[in-house]
Amino acid sequence: MANDASAVFDTLSPAVSRGSLADSFTPPADSTLWRKNFLLGAATASYQIEGAVNEDGRLPSIWDTFSAIPGKVLAGDTGAVACDHYHRWEADVEMLASLGLEGYRLSIAWPRVMDAAGVPNRKGLDFYKRLLNRLKEKGITTFVTLYHWDLPQHLEDRGGWLNRDTAYRFADYADLMSRELAGTVDAWATLNEPWCSAYLGYGNGHHAPGLANDRFATQAMHHLLLAHGLAVPVLRANDPASQKGIVANIGRGTPNSDSAADQRAAHLFEVQHNAWILDPLLKGSYPQDLFELWPGTEPLVLDGDMQTISAPLDFLGINYYFRTNVASDGAHGFRDVPLEGVERTQMGWEVYPDGLRDLLTGFKKTYHNLPPIYITENGMASDDQVTDGHVEDTQRISFLKRHLAAVDQAIKAGVDIRGYFLWSLMDNFEWAFGYERRFGVVHVDYSTQKRTIKRSAELVAKFLKERKARA
Ligand code: FCB
User: Fold this and answer.
1) Domain with 399 in it: what CATH number?
2) Residue 374: phi, psi to the nearest 5?
3) Owning domain of residue 141
4) How many domains does the chain contain in total?
5) Is residue 173 within 8 Å of 228, Cβ to Cβ?
6) What is the pTM of this model?
7) What is the pLDDT of residues 451-469, one digit of tens each?
8) What's the CA-to-centroid distance between 466 and ligand 1, angstroms?
9) What's the rounded Cα separation, in Å, for the pair 156 and 210?
10) Could you read off the pLDDT of 17-28 as tens digits, one per residue?
């Protein structure tokens, strides 16, 4: 979750040392991760890796516009070239396959495949067809996200997600994609992280399109969820064999003290980060506490919308990164109280694997209809350097190992979790943080586009090989 990075940076925990970690990366013998049907893969997103923003008829997206505004993205970076994946996709697929990764989660750039009148762009469509066909040939399970934040600019010019019509345009886009790509997609996710699109895009303006108003955030969220709900039956009709779902980022909020006010603050934090999205999807209503936090921001909801939004899902994608320690702000809400002496990543995010386990087990209790879960993103940024052709990303190895252990614990506690995707396959354009923050298990040298497999990816590959050999 590309969030405020104002939190303090701390030194790595002393437990994170070289050597020992590498040896102990492999999960214990009783771990559910040894099950062959637990899918292990990696994820990326179109704007973060593709580049080629002006090629083959691609139209501008809100991220082209936003990143061109001075001060919006660190160092003035943009996705114009990114990892040049649009041209290097074949080698990238080879790399994915060579690591033995079983699943690949990618996203489609809406402005690449359709024009403002809804006319398909063949060249853009062909790119995804070639890519998905190759992945299929390699036996890689494909998870395709329709919307990972690169809204066509022409739709933003008409109000973007504040305009209800965008939800209907999204359903048209889902219709085209599922007619064109049926048979090559194992799982469709309508949206990636509507919280980020709605809140960071329209609530605090840290992301494109850069608007900042709580009322906008709740209305944008409603239209995003409506877009999802309208798209699901279309995907089902056009591509019945695939799974249909949505990807949500979730946040753990813990209280800074035992006081009732801080406990309430932590609750409200989780309402704002989790229930705001999951309640409409799984209960068919918005959590009323949200409007205690943001009084007077109720979105305009038309008859039937909540039913559309809460249509059954085949899976729920969960993205998890960190926890936030909060206290009451003395009024309706919460404020962050960064903990000292805890392990943090290059983003300033606290490493807190228990949060993943606790949220998942909590959701199982709260939502009786919780669909099967895939962890569609988890990972961390570190300032990785290539030394003698190697990248020793020690903290990431430890991070992945501990989060996979948290997933195992949640499975053993009864949560139906079917897979895990590393964020990310390779270093890429990290939104408002540009290229400085490196989330990949593969290092990218942006001056040469050379990819270097990091030690973490080697160890994941080693585990996957061992698991295959045992099956
Ligand atoms: C998530 C986004 C993903 C990436 C990670 C670090 O919020 O879905 O694109 O930026 O955070």
Assistant:
1) 3.20.20.80
2) -115, 135
3) 5-470
4) 1
5) no
6) 0.95
7) 999 999 999 999 999 999 9
8) 30
9) 11
10) 444 555 568 999
